[in-house]
Amino acid sequence: MEDKFIAAHFFSILGEGNVYTLTPLVDASGHSRILVGSLQRKVYCLEYTKGKPCMREIPFTYIPAGAEIISMDAINRSVIQEDYIIGITIIKKDDIRGQQSQFFNIYSDWDLNTDSDLDTVSQNCLPLHLDYVPYHLYHTQARSSDLVDETVWLLSGSDCNIHLYQSDEEGYQEVNCSELFPEFSDTLDQVTLRINILYSSDGKTRMSAVCGEGGSVMVYRVCVQSRPNVTATHTLKWDYPVSSVNLFTVNTNARLPKILQGYNIEDSVPQIPDRHPTHTVVATSLESCYVFRDFPGSCDAYELPESDGHDVVSCCVTCDIDNDGENEIIIGTYEKSVIIYKRKLGEGEKKKKEDEREKDQEEDCRKWYTHGRLKVPCAVLALECCDMIGDGTNQLIVMTSAGTHIFQHNPADLAQLVLHRLERLVDIFDKKMMTTTTTTATTTTTTTTTAAIEQQE
């Protein structure tokens, strides 16, 4: 796998971050920037401008001297313009009284009719005082009582609760979880370290997963067609803290591009199943990582090989890193390693028809192997997969205690992949044209024969 990736760039950042201070920010064109926070209250934007790497500090307001950034998250609410919302949680220490205070700062340009660049957004802050120490900050979609989807914030705290923040006419305020997220309405028996939510393709259900320092993992299935209600729940327990939990499907959700939808080739390309079995990868801090198949419907688990031999697992993401249409599992460790796992298929299974693939994917999520490994100079804190360069493929973003690495695919491999897929597309068009020509010729012959018979009669 090392020869498949090229170290595109390394951003050296003054001040170490933590596992919560790396977040991507996607613009309207689909390209991503990376926001990185340090404990020294500085936030940097990492991006590529005309193919060249660039790093600059973003002067966010309401982060006073002596404050520490705990967690960050960001989202672009619009698909046609830049409408950024950025959340930053901080702890401010008071050296005089020996006390500390916590804040959740929400940055946004409240004028929805104009593009909002980062410099403008960073100056518009809504600070919310917290009476607990913040941990993981997570944004997601929620369906309100009037069936309108909106972006909300979920924030785990030292009080063993998950707090919900919803927008109103004046900004954002904390609301009770019972209406929108009933799975988080009760106080948990541990501090939550990670929150992950995955909606079904039809938007009727969602899976919610949380893990924490007490070693528990809770997974919920929630029906959201009308008022959200929990339909299934499952809990697992370890003796050590669980650092990460991720919900994912084997298939990626890539659809036929709009530019090709008018050529009637839908029957010639693999179809994505309507139902995606949801799987869960659990990364424990001191033990192995596990993949649970169709969780919580099944308790079948598969231990990821070599996942317990690289010190503490600090982070985990799932994405299609090799562009084959299936998601891979990527974990980062304090032993300066990034390990990539891929689902294993037998030779006979590779030759099966596409309409049998869904069953194969349900059965074979127990089979994962080490697909590759990357070494970095320092401990890995966070991982992301996004398109920073703007070439249409995802880069692997690795944040370490010394800075942030950008790994991109080998251009020669990408060129070969693009040529191969163009050849397949040409073959599909050729077969479609041959079928159309044959059908037209048959129709013409039938029409001519029918006309001749009618004349004889």
Automatic annotation (TrEMBL):
Biological process (GO), any one: cellular response to amino acid starvation
One Gene Ontology CC term in the entry: lamellipodium
Top-rank lineage group of the source organism: Eukaryota
InterPro entries: Kptn
GO molecular function: actin filament binding
Protein name in UniProt: KICSTOR complex protein kaptin
Organism: Petrolisthes manimaculis
